Every structure is written in structure tokens, then in C-alpha cells.
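User: Show me a protein chain along with its predicted structure.
Assistant: Here is one chain, sequence first, then C-alpha cells.
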Amino acid sequence: QVQLVESGGGLVQPGGSLRLSCAASGSDFRIYAWGWYRQAPGKQRELVAVITRGDSTDYADSVKGRFTISRDNAQNTVYLQMNSLKPEDTAVYYCNTRGLLEYWGQGTQVTVSS
């Protein structure tokens, strides 16, 4: 089993930055992808960024050039660096891993507002 705990969310002004962290405990020897998703009020949950076991990355068009996903293998932590934040980035952000099973964190709130 794998437990994912997100942190780093909060309130930030438009144009600001936040760095989300997802710390993983336990183990899953078949993980092939790590991702960040978000869900805004009244909207479906959407994929924001993904990084694979081979370190390839992909991003939603809405965040390309602004967000960066990365991993720290030694600490079993996945990060999402978010720059140039916009009000439309406001959402609950969830960490996700896919392997033998799919795991989700509890989510961390990101609010972009003046």
C-alpha cells in the first residue's frame, strides 16, 4: 500500500508561485506514473501534469510553460512548481500514482486571488 500526503497549498496572489509536494510512504514496485490533478468548483477533475518512470513529462495545455513536475527519488516525493499563477488555477490539487494499484492523496487547496 502507498500513502500520499500533499502539502504546500495556500492562498497566493495572481502572478505568484507555489510549490506543492507529495510525500509517498509505503511501496509499490509497479508504479509507472506519478501525476498531479486538480478539481475546481463545478468542474471535473483534470490532469495537470504527469511524470513517468522513464522521466518523460506531459502537461495540460493550460499550464504549459508555467508548471513543472519533478521527482526526488531519495525522499519519495513528487513536486509541482507552479509559477505565474492565475485565478483559474484555483482548485484542490491531488497527487496520484499508478502502478499495481492507483493511489490518491487527500488534496491540498490552492487559491489564487487578490
